[in-house]
Specification:
Methylamine Dehydrogenase, Chain H; 3 domains; 6-stranded mixed β-sheet; Leucine-rich repeat, LRR (right-handed beta-alpha superhelix); 10 helices; alpha+beta
């Protein structure tokens, strides 16, 4: 029988507690504990544990799935630890001590510095600068050496057409060779160097040769009659994710200049000097939204992704200074959290009867205990059932739901100024504004509807006006582009649209009746939308199109067009666009698996002038990232639509969602 029981945990809590969920500090020192005494099922209930003392015990390692999502401080002094790599399951760890573990060496110090991105103190010493060097400089040097070793000794050994046995053989030989021959740093760190070299080499093979992961999907967990939700641990989520085979001959460079493989217009042909190479390289191709975890599922559509905001702490207050590399994606029955750098599926949340269409983040200031306040990221997910799920990601816990609409929800977004205000746009031709409330320490919360915006057709995309996000909302709908006044000091809780925008049509006239399936702001004034005219994306001025002082509802106004972006001539809908305002980029995928990228910093200054002239010629893409030749089960994946493309605020990572259940992650060099 285990030495650790619920009663013991409650008794050893500091201060003593009556519920496991409320424990934040726990002292389990001097109990003669062995590894087998740490029961993951019991520890998974310690959702808010931040400080754990396991010193003076007999631990030789950590179980891989303790699930302590909020752990910040860990003391393992005076044990018998032989390995530290399992500590990566505590990504928020800031302070770690493991002195007097005789089997641990300097190599283990370097391993935890690499694995734990938030670690500041190791055995009482500030390791911030050294850890940054290990994660960046050391990793960059080793990656260069591993790549060079492959190029020099192994690339030509792999034939154009190869068998699984050939791949297995060359993988084994390469891993052995690279660990033996790649040397960097002092000999005292040789074990750490071999460990990192192996890791880098395996990652290199995974995306350069497309070696499939040797994991079989686990069966679905059985749930009770009334249960429909499940949250998977990072390990389970990772095992559900598959990587897809990529042929190396097509992977030397998966980007192209404008016009590569596409018909070129005159404007495009004459603007070669404006092109640039952003040097984005593919990192990962993941299959993590499969229905029933099936590796044969290449039909689930992926729709929405959004990067997790960084919690306010020090320099992280400005997301442009230090943006998150964690992204939430949704499609089919699941929502996934992915580490873009490693390709690890950190968490996976499922609802068996749902099809998720949209996700959005907010940061709530919650009272955790003793009247202390703390910021926590909350993820809202919604889809076909018209229900919004509210997920406290750090605790792996869906704490509530809002039955927002009786028809599917197409998209959701939070207000940038009111942390609890959530907009939901539904197939019932309504956009609702909700106050989701702030949950207490037991996750009790109260949601209320504040406003309903009546649309003439289904709203597909919504965007709050950056200069007045509490006053105006834009929506791209099946029947046009509309604006609403959303100011809450008005009496009416149900409102018609205030303006309908006119756009040029393909016949040289103007139109208001068209499907707008892409909508975003490039900066405080420039709106990017599609599609009133085939083959192009419109850029237009909010301030010059809409007079906020004008009176009257349901008026028609002409969108003041600043420029048109050259895009695919496809007639397929719902291939949406996104922007990276900090870098002045627009992204949009097409029907051939390509990502069109437009760098517009040279234009935005001219457009910001009150008399700024329209760009007469269509602006060609700065670059087109071509989809590589992917193979699944030996067969090539075809007919790949890019449903969505999103970058983080600094444009370090680009996440591409497809119609074939593949999430592609690119990284800007």
């Amino acid at each position: 029988m285990s030495k650790i029981t619920t009663e013991l945990l409650l008794e050893r809590a500091v201060p003593r507690s009556t519920r496991l969920r409320k424990i934040e500090t726990l002292n389990l020192s001097k109990l003669q504990l062995k590894t087998g005494d740490l029961d993951p099922r019991l520890f998974s209930r310690l959702r808010h544990l931040q400080k754990l003392d396991l010193s003076d015990n007999l631990l030789d390692k950590f179980p891989n799935s303790l699930t302590l999502p909020d752990l910040r401080v860990l003391n393992c002094n005076n044990n018998k630890l032989e390995d530290v790599t399992a500590l990566k399951q505590f990504p928020l760890l800031e302070e770690l001590t493991y002195e007097n573990n005789v089997y641990l060496t300097l190599n283990d110090d370097y391993k935890v510095m690499f694995l734990l991105q938030n670690l500041r103190l190791l055995n009482g010493k500030d390791i911030t600068k050294l850890a940054d060097h290990v994660r960046r400089v050391n990793s960059h040097k080793l990656t260069s050496k591993v790549t060079a070793h492959w190029e020099k000794f192994f690339r030509d050994q792999l034939p154009e057409k190869y068998t699984a046995e050939q791949v297995k053989s060359i993988k084994k030989e390469f891993l052995q060779s690279v660990q033996t021959n790649v040397v960097y740093g002092p000999s005292s760190l040789s074990e750490f160097t071999r460990w990192r070299v192996k890791m880098i080499a395996e990652e290199f093979l995974a995306y350069s040769l497309g070696l499939e992961l040797n994991t079989d999907p686990e069966p679905e967990e059985k749930m009770g009659e009334n249960e429909e939700e499940s949250t998977e641990s990072p390990r389970e989520a990772a095992e559900d994710a598959s990587q897809v085979t990529v042929r190396p001959s097509k992977r030397k460079r998966n980007n192209s200049k404008p016009g590569s493989g596409n018909k070129r217009s005159k404007s495009q042909a004459n603007t070669e000097e404006e092109t640039e190479d952003v040097s984005a390289e593919p990192l990962h191709f993941l299959q993590c939204h499969s229905k029933g975890n099936s590796r044969e599922d290449f039909k689930t559509q992926l729709w929405s992704c959004v990067f997790e905001p960084l919690l306010d702490c020090g320099a992280r207050k400005d997301p442009i200074v230090s943006s998150s590399r964690t992204v939430a994606t949704c499609g089919g029955e699941s929502v996934c959290l992915i580490d873009c750098e490693t390709g690890t599926v950190l968490k996976k949340y499922k609802v068996a009867t749902e099809e998720f269409f949209s996700v959005a983040w907010t940061t709530l200031t919650m009272v955790i205990s003793d009247s202390r306040k703390k910021s926590h990221n909350i993820l809202a997910a919604a889809g076909r059932r018209g229900i919004v799920k509210l997920i406290h990601v750090a605790s792996d816990f869906c704490y509530g739901e809002i039955k927002a609409h009786k028809k599917p929800i197409a998209t959701v977004c939070f207000s940038p100024t009111q942390e609890t205000h959530l907009f939901t746009a539904s197939y019932d031709k309504r956009i609702a504004l909700w106050d989701i409330g702030i949950p207490d320490c037991d996750y009790n919360f109260k949601a209320s509807q504040l406003l309903v915006l009546e649309a003439l057709s289904i709203p597909l995309r919504i965007a709050l006006v950056p200069t007045c996000p509490d006053q105006y909302l834009l929506a791209g709908c099946e029947g046009g582009c509309f604006a609403w006044n959303i100011k809450l000091d008005k009496d009416k809780k149900s409102r018609p649209f205030e303006a309908l925008f006119q756009f040029p049509d393909e016949d040289g006239g103007v139109t208001t009746s068209h499907r707008v399936d892409g909508l975003a702001f490039l900066n405080d004034d420039v709106v990017v939308s599609k599609s009133s005219k085939p083959g192009c994306i419109n850029l237009w001025s909010w301030s010059r199109s809409f007079d906020m002082k004008a009176k009257g509802c349901q008026r028609t106004v002409a969108a003041v067009i600043l420029a048109e972006l050259e895009w695919s001539t496809t007639d397929l809908s719902y291939l949406t666009l996104s922007t990276c305002p900090a870098k002045a980029y627009v992204f949009c995928g097409d029907e051939n698996g390509s990502v069109w990228m437009y760098h517009l910093s040279n234009y935005t200054t001219a457009w910001s002038s009150p008399k700024g002239k329209r760009s007469e010629k269509r602006i060609p893409p700065t670059q087109i990232l071509k989809w590589p030749e992917l193979r699944a089960n030996g067969e090539q994946l075809t007919e790949i639509l890019i449903n969505n493309v999103v970058s983080d605020p600094t444009f370090t990572y680009l996440v591409v969602l497809t119609s074939v259940n593949i999430t592609a992650i690119w990284k800007k060099s």
